[in-house]
């Protein structure tokens, strides 16, 4: 215990002596800090002396010019001002900082000998707003374009990032130094297609000096392409008296407007029931005379596109709402739907009701007879085939023997390699 207390006491004493030596005897020295400031900003340069008699402090710039000697201004520069001058501290401020202000600043304490401290002032170059080059407006589908984004004046070199509609994509970066700052360029190679139409390409600048106001440039691609049309019908099974709307969905740039409608390769018949408004063709009440091939065409200077819709008007539903009846209704929607573009309408034309209950019975009997006849036929065929196959075996065996036999006798002997075969042969010869 006693030993331990002694040790602590000794350590404290040594520490006290060291502290006194640093601060008391030779502790009168200036303390400064490296500073970083953004171009155009203001920075304070502070020099402190913890224990000072009335010795003077001085700030000088990288060119060794005295800026302030105590509270006395030495250099005529409006940007440099005194913030605080005491025996313990000399603080000056430098506003509208330029890249030329960067360098090593010196604080001197005029003791004997003079003690100095050096602070490095780093000036950040603010990147200029980026510019995107290489845009062709409008671009044609298939064009290969190279977008280039350039920003100048950054220090240190800025980073450029590309975004295609908010999604980041990789570009090829190139950095060149020009004086104290850097010119950064990033390029992007694209082969445009119609999906690029209306897509925004953004180039963003990342830089330490831009934490508050990020810089970016955006260009929206415009791609010209030939139209593509598609007809969309409001009904899957058009029936008489129903309202039908055919919409000609057209995509193309420049927008192919208006679209043109044709029926069976000719102009639309001038009927009051058929109305064309913009891209829509409507028939207020379908009639069987309306069936035919409807075509929609759209064109721009890059090409033409057409789509066809074959209208086949089915009978009107006789029982207005067929709710739970499972047997086939007068107009069977399922079978009709299977071939809505059928060219031969005769089957659906004949009234399904003509085939009544009696008809069904006759059909049943006929079916049974047909099955019996079919089975009999099959039996006959199978029997015939059975006999024919055995005869075939015999012939083959004979031929096999003949292949490698010098004369007919040997051939027969060769063929008799198997007893079963010999018996077969005998049977047939009888
Ligand atoms: C410089 O110091 C003064 C006084 O302490 C303060 O008001 C001012 O905001 C400082 N300027 C900068 C840029 O730190
Ligand atoms: C500093 O100067 C003031 C007056 O100018 C004087 O009163 C003071 O004693 C001086 N201090 C030292 C440590 O010399
Ligand atoms: C201050 O900057 C100088 C020059 O860049 C460097 O050598 C020194 O280590 C820096 N000092 C501190 C404390 O960061
Ligand atoms: C960088 O310098 C090279 C060679 O001098 C030059 O070919 C290139 O165009 C420059 N790039 C930029 C972004 O200035
Ligand atoms: C269909 O048109 C014909 C001739 O224009 C007309 O006689 C018939 O009544 C129409 N059918 C329906 C269901 O409107
Ligand atoms: C239209 O369909 C009806 C059957 O629904 C058929 O009788 C008629 O021949 C068809 N007319 C044309 C012009 O195809």
UniProtKB/TrEMBL annotation:
InterPro entries: CD80_C2-set, Ig-like_dom, Ig-like_dom_sf, Ig-like_fold, Ig/MHC_CS, Ig_sub, Ig_sub2, Ig_V-set
Topological relation to the membrane, as annotated: Single-pass type I membrane protein
SMART domains referenced in this protein's UniProt entry, alphabetically: 4.1m (SM00294), IG (SM00409), IGc2 (SM00408)
Keyword Transmembrane among record annotations: yes
Occurrences of domain Ig-like (ranges): 30-109, 130-222, 227-312
The entry's keywords: Disulfide bond, Immunoglobulin domain, Membrane, Repeat, Signal, Transmembrane, Transmembrane helix
Protein's cellular compartments: Membrane
GO annotation, cellular component aspect: membrane
Disordered: region residues: 314-355
GO terms of biological process kind: homophilic cell adhesion via plasma membrane adhesion molecules
Superkingdom as given in the UniProt entry: Eukaryota
Signal peptide (residue range): 1-27
A matching Pfam family: Ig_3
Keyword Transmembrane: yes
TM spans (from-to): 363-383
Extent of Pro residues compositional bias: 318-333
Family: Belongs to the nectin family.
Record protein name field: Ig-like domain-containing protein
Record lineage: Eukaryota, Metazoa, Chordata, Craniata, Vertebrata
């Amino acid at each position: 215990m006693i030993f331990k207390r002694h040790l602590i006491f000794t350590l404290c004493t040594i520490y006290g002596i060291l502290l006194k030596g640093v601060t008391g005897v030779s502790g009168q020295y200036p303390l400064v800090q490296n500073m970083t400031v953004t171009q155009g900003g203001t920075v304070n340069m502070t020099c402190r002396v913890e224990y000072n008699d009335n010795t003077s402090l001085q700030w000088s710039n990288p060119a060794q010019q005295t800026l302030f000697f105590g509270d006395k201004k030495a250099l005529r520069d409006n940007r440099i001002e005194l913030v605080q001058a005491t025996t313990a501290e000399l603080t000056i401020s430098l506003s509208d900082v330029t890249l030329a202000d960067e360098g090593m600043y010196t604080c001197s304490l005029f003791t004997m000998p003079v003690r100095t401290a050096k602070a490095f002032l780093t000036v950040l170059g603010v990147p200029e707003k980026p510019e995107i080059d290489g845009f062709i407006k409008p671009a044609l589908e298939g064009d290969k374009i190279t977008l280039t984004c350039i920003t100048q004046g950054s220090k240190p070199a800025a980073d450029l990032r590309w975004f295609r509609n908010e999604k980041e994509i990789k570009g090829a970066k190139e950095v060149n130094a020009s004086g104290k700052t850097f010119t950064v360029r990033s390029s992007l190679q694209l082969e445009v297609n119609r999906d690029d139409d209306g897509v925004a390409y953004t180039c963003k600048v990342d830089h330490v000096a831009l934490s508050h106001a990020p810089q970016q440039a955006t260009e929206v691609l415009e791609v010209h392409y030939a139209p593509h049309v598609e007809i969309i019908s409001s009904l899957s099974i058009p029936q008489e008296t129903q309202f039908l709307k055919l919409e000609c969905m057209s995509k193309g740039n420049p927008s192919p407007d208006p679209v043109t409608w044709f029926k069976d390769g000719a102009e639309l018949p001038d009927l009051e029931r058929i109305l064309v408004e913009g891209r829509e063709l409507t028939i207020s009440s379908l009639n069987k005379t309306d069936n035919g091939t409807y075509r929609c065409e759209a064109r721009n200077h890059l090409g033409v596109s057409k789509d066809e819709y074959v209208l086949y008007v089915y009978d009107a539903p006789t029982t207005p709402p067929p709710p739970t009846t499972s047997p086939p209704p007068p107009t069977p929607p399922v079978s009709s739907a299977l071939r809505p573009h059928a060219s031969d309408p005769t089957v659906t034309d004949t009234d399904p009701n003509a085939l009544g209950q009696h008809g069904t019975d006759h059909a049943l009997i006929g079916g049974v007879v047909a099955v019996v006849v079919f089975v009999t036929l099959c039996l006959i065929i199978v029997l015939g085939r059975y006999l024919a196959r055995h005869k075939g075996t015999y012939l083959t065996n004979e031929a096999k023997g003949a292949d490698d036999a010098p004369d007919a006798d040997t051939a027969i002997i060769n063929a008799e390699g198997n007893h079963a075969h010999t018996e077969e042969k005998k049977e047939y010869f009888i």
